Amino acid sequence: MAEPTVFTTPDPTVRDLLATHPQLTSDVQCGLMLEGVPLSAIADEVGTPCWVMSAGTLRVRAQRLLGAMTQAGLSVAPHFAVKANDHVAVLRILSETGFGADVVSGGELRRARNAGIPASRIVFSGVGKTDAELRLALAEGIAQVNVESAEELEILSALASACNREMTVLLRVNPDVDAGTHAKITTGVAENKFGVPYDEALALYRRASELPGLRPAGYAMHIGSQILSAKPFREAYARLATLVKATRAAGYPVSALDCGGGLGICYRDEGEGSPDAWAGAIRAELGGLDVRLAIEPGRWIAAPAGVLLSTVVLRKVVTGGVPFIILDAAMNDLLRPSLYDAWHGIVPLSPRDAVADVETVAVVGPVCESGDTFAPARVLPRLERGARVAVLDTGAYGAVMSSTYNSRTLAAQVLVDGERWSVIRPRQNVETLWADEVVPEWIKQTA
C-alpha cells in the first residue's frame, strides 16, 4: 500500500487550480464563481463555513463517465456510491442522469428510496450488514446484495427463507490486488476486512447455490479509492475473469459482475483517473464474458462538484515559524486532511486576494486538536483576517463525514445550478445539539 505522499513539486498556483477546475472561474469584479454564481454572494447571505455543490458539474461528469462506457461498447448499470455524498438533492440529480445507488447501510438505502431511486436500481454493499438492514433490503426488493462473507451468506439465506423471499446475491471477492492508494482507502488486499478471499470464492459460490432464498448471479469487486491508473483495475478484473471461467467450468452459471468504483480525481497536480481507460480495462478483461456489468463510482463524479467556503478568523504570527491562517471551518467539517493527510486546493474568493503576493503558511481550523490542520505548509496569496477562501474538491467525503465535535454546528449546504442557487440544508441551530439529550431526574439542576 502507498505511503503518505511527499510532494516534490511546487504547490499549484490559483491560476493552476482554476485551469484544472473548469467549473470555477475568476471574475475581475465578483471574484471566484461556481457556474454562474459568485461564491462571495453565497457567503454574504448564508455565512461560513458553507458547503456549495454544482448541479451542472454533477451532470457533466456523470454523463462523461457513462459516455466513456458507451464509447467502449459496454452496457453497464451505474450505481452512485451514496457514501460519497448522500444529500437527497444530489441523489435526485444523478438519478435523472441514469444512476441508481450503491448503499452501505439501511439509512443510505432509505435515503436512496426517498430520493426517488427505484429499488430495482439499488445495490447493497458493506462488510457488516445487520439483520434489520438485510430484512429492509428484502422488503424493498432491491436489485442485489453484495455478500462479503460466508457468515453473511448464511444469515441472509435464513432471513430470506423466514419471509418467503428470494434475493439476488453477488459474492464480493477480495482479489489481493494493491490499488496503490492511501492505506486507509485501499480495500482489495488480503489484510483488508472487505470481501471473500479469492481462493475461497468458488467454494462459497457453490454453497450459495445450495442455500434457500438466494439467487447467486455472479461476483463483485472493489479494490480501493482514488485510483489514477488503469493497471490495478486490469489486474483485478483479469483475476475476476479467471474466477468466472472456473465457476462456469464447475457447472455454475454466472450472469452478472459488479466492477466496483474507485476512479480518482486531480486534487493537486496528479492528473485524474480516465473514464476511458477504466472503460477500456473493463472491456479488455470482462467484455467477452457475456455478463451484465455494473459500476459504482462516487468520488470521480461528486468531489469536483463541491467547495467548502470558509473565512479567516485570524492570522497568527509565530516567531521563527510560518504564520497560522486560522479558518472558521475545521476538521469536524472536512475530516479528510486530518484523516488521510489529504491535499485540497485553497483559493481566495476575492479577486484582490487571489493576486496578492504569495507566502508559505499553515492553514488550520479552530478545533482543539493538533490534527485540525488543512495544510501544514502551503504557498498561498497573503490572507488577512476576514478573507474568504474556497476549499476545493469537497463534494465527496466532505459534508457527509461532518460531525458536531466541539459542539460546532453542521454547516449550511447550498446547491448552484447555472445562475441560480438555493440553500439545501440550513445551518444547524446550536440548541439542536442538546435537544434530544435527557438528564436523569436524580441529577440536580444547577442554577
Structure in words:
The structure is a single chain. The chain is an alpha/beta fold and 447 residues long. 28% of the residues lie in helices and 24% in strands. It has two domains: 14-53 and 305-433, Lyase, Ornithine Decarboxylase, Chain A, domain 1, CATH 2.40.37.10; 55-302, Alpha-Beta Barrel (TIM Barrel). The strands form three sheets. Strands 4, 14, 15, 16, 17, 18, 19, 20 and 21 form a nine-stranded mixed beta sheet that branches. The protein has an eight-stranded parallel barrel with strand order 5-6-7-8-9-11-12-13, surrounded by five helices. A hairpin with a 7-residue loop joins strand 14 (306-316) and strand 15. The longest helix is centred in the middle third of the chain and has 20 residues, at 230-249. Residues 182-190 have low confidence and may be disordered.
